[in-house]
Amino acid sequence: MKSTASLFHALLAVSLLAGCSSYRPAPAAFHKMLDQPYRLGAGDRVRVTVFEQEGLTNVYSVDQSGYLSIPLVGAVPARGHTAQQLEGEIADKLRQGYLRDPDVSVEIDRYRPIFIMGEVGAAGQYSYVPGLTVQKAIAIAGGFSPRANQESVDITRDINGKVMTGRVATSDPLLPGDTVYVRERLF
């Protein structure tokens, strides 16, 4: 009798450990990114205002290679830059033979989208808004399906050019470009 109980406990322990083998806690960099200034990436759209220059003031999209294409100055690198850094880049390029003292302002017009997959009502691509949490994003995607694990989700995020995946609580904030995967619960 004792050997069957021991065997049962051993099998239970092994099955629990096997279930945890795919667990990937969120790297520390996941939460450090939340305290840093927002960095532009492909898919973002910015409003560039060059004061007293109506022909240059416009909305520009960051292309797949990470550049903005602006009249007179051409391609300006934007990927990985903050809005303030981009202001300086554009002003420097305009000073090189076009304007004496350009006054440039850059603001984010539209963030790159987030993606929601797995056990939700309507998986797909959704617009990012500042302050978006996992729970709010799932609500936008039609809520949890009846089989969804509602305690935590897996997020895939680009951190300094490196794509990482980690498991977070549904109360965690999202960043533009995140992919959220809602897993199926075991029971």
UniProtKB/TrEMBL annotation:
Residues 114-164 form the Soluble ligand binding domain. Residues 35-108 form the Polysaccharide export protein N-terminal domain. InterPro entries: Poly_export (IPR049712), Poly_export_N (IPR003715), Soluble_ligand-bd (IPR019554). Keywords: Signal. The keyword Signal applies. One of its GO terms (molecular function) is polysaccharide transmembrane transporter activity. Residues 1-18 form the signal peptide. PANTHER family: POLYSACCHARIDE EXPORT PROTEIN GFCE-RELATED. This is Sugar ABC transporter substrate-binding protein. It comes from Mesorhizobium mediterraneum.
